[in-house]
Design goal:
single chain, 5-stranded parallel sheet
Length: 153
């Protein structure tokens, strides 16, 4: 039996406060609940999930570097680093696995500085504005991309 694909679920700064931080924007679902939803969706497709959250840019980059040989792809909500971190974009490019960017809120309907993603160009796709469901949509998107690659498409 083939080893299941490992998907990284990476969350950046302040996402550990989901459920209590700005519930009118981010909802009341906790990060643990989102992680469980993603794991269930991935497991149903035969994939495993490794979850990671940090408020520190370097820790996120170190995690990506450390896991690049183990993971088939990643779903990432980089939080505010989306709009500020060239280093994170460079790390996504360097690990050479497909990454789908996800955001709970529609960043294009928020403050102007949130309209631009520095990491989007290094990602294979972006899901934004679907609330907590965006994570499972992003996971399905990533798994579809991985299946396509495995099938030579």
């Amino acid at each position: 039996m083939a080893k299941p694909a490992l998907i990284l679920l990476v969350n950046g700064p302040n996402l550990n406060l989901l459920g209590t931080r700005k519930p009118e924007v981010y909802g009341r679902t906790t990060l643990s609940e989102i992680e469980a939803d993603v794991a269930a969706a991935a497991n149903a497709e035969g994939a495993a999930v490794l979850c990671f959250q940090s408020n520190h840019e370097g820790a996120i980059i170190d995690f990506l570097h450390d896991q690049r040989a183990n993971a088939a792809g990643a779903v990432m909500n980089a939080g505010a680093y989306t709009h500020t971190s060239v280093a994170l974009r460079d790390a996504i490019e360097a690990i050479e696995i497909p990454v789908v960017e996800v955001h709970i809120s529609n960043t294009h309907r928020r403050e102007e500085f949130r309209h631009r993603s520095l990491i989007a160009g290094a990602c294979v796709g972006q899901v934004t504005g679907l609330g907590k469901h965006g994570y499972t949509v992003a996971t399905s998107l990533l798994l579809g991309i991985l299946r396509g690659r495995a099938e030579g498409r």
